[in-house]
């Protein structure tokens, strides 16, 4: 799916416009102008994000450092998007590893305090920022690897699934998954679609219906993560793995992208049809209650 988005961003101007509307991509850029990285190795830091870019390898490492648990607040999401925009604009940056500076946690998912009891305007901005993060990672021209060095529930799991490859710390205390159901909420359909693209239909059905959080070993078994390594090795393994991915010529990447793009379009059409059916059904129920 990520590759599909990448392809359409490259080749379909119409869809680019559609996606940029969906993602409201101007929102992050409007706050702070992106700057190109000029040095051989550089480090740029916002309060919540630190990016180390090694120009000789073309690989950047994004450290999420929003204590205590990297919960995805509007402010944090905006910082992530700005950092991504800057890297995306620097054509010498070909790979991105995303990891956490917080002990034991990759990301606790959406910031619950930023979701409830807020104004409609804040909620709209918040959800746009969530979508923007999702689209920016999925549609990135860079190879992206999630170095999951701690627990990663809900939106944290989503973030890792938008990457091309996931390496998780092999510590049974950590867990990963879309656990929204356990919180009494329904995961948005694009969370579901992202998981279907990662682990397949049946595994997603089980995961979402039961709100399952998986241990690293279970996550590896269903393909939610691609590799487990010792806690101390997560980041180094990610950068080593990146070298392999970057050795593949970009043109092959684009070819696969076209296959995935076809699947993604079919999925989108189905989703739109299903939304229309739901609206019609809801109207019918509403009418039958009136009379
Ligand atoms: C267009 C779309 C429109 C509509 C969509 C409609 C509906 C969609 C609805 C929802 C989708 C939601 C997706 C989400 O991501 S919801 C968030 C789910 N997250 C969780 O369930 C994680 C909860 N947290 C944990 O499990 C743990 O905290 C942990 C495993 C991440 C870490 O455990 P620790 O033991 O190390 O730390 P704690 O003591 O538990 O926590 C420390 C500290 O952090 C606060 N905190 C934890 N998680 C969050 C969070 N997600 N948001 C905000 N704050 C969080 C926790 O309260 C503690 O704070 P205090 O120290 O007590 O102040």
Describe what you observe in this structure.
With 291 residues, the protein is α/β, with parallel strands linked by helices. The protein has 11 helices and 9 strands. The strands form 2 sheets. A 7-stranded mixed beta sheet has the order 1-2-3-4-5-7-9, with helices on both faces. Strands 6-8 form a two-stranded parallel sheet. Helix 1 crosses helix 2 and helix 7 packs across helix 8. The longest helix has 41 residues, at 250-290. The termini are far apart. The site of ligand LSE3YFK7 has 23 residues, from loops. Keywords: Acetylation, Fatty acid metabolism, Isomerase, Lipid metabolism, Mitochondrion, Transit peptide. Its EC number is 5.3.3.8.
Task: Jot down its keywords.
single chain; 291 residues; alpha/beta; 7-stranded mixed β-sheet; two-stranded parallel sheet; 9 strands; binds ligand LSE3YFK7
In short:
The chain is an alpha/beta fold and 291 residues long. The chain contains 11 helices and 9 strands.
């Amino acid at each position: 799916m990520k590759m599909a988005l990448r392809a359409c961003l490259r080749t379909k101007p119409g869809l680019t416009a559609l996606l940029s509307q969906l993602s409201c991509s101007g929102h992050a850029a409007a706050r702070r102008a992106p700057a190109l990285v000029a040095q051989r190795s550089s480090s740029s830091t916002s309060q919540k994000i630190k990016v180390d870019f090694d120009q000789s390898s073309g690989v950047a490492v994004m450290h999420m450092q929003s204590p205590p648990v990297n919960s995805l607040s509007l402010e944090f999401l905006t910082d992530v998007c700005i950092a991504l925009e800057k890297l995306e604009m620097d054509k010498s940056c070909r790979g991105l590893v995303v990891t956490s500076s917080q002990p034991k946690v990759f990301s606790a998912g959406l910031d619950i305090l930023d979701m409830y009891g807020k104004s409609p305007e804040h909620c709209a901005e918040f959800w746009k920022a969530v979508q923007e993060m999702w689209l920016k990672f999925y549609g990135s021209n860079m190879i992206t690897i999630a170095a999951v060095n701690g627990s990663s529930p809900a939106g944290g799991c989503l973030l890792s699934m938008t990457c091309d490859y996931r390496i998780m710390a092999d510590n049974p205390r950590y867990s990963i998954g879309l656990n929204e159901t356990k919180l009494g909420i329904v995961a948005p359909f694009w969370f579901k679609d992202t998981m279907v693209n990662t682990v397949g239909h049946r595994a997603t059905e089980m995961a979402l219906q039961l709100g399952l959080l998986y241990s690293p070993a279970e996550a590896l078994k269903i393909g939610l993560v691609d590799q487990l390594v010792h806690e101390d090795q997560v980041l180094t393994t990610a950068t080593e793995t990146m070298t392999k991915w970057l050795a593949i010529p970009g043109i092959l990447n684009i070819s696969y992208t076209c296959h995935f793009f076809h699947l993604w379009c079919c999925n989108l059409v189905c989703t739109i049809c299903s939304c229309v059916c739901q609206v019609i059904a809801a109207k019918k129920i509403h009418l039958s209650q009136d009379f």
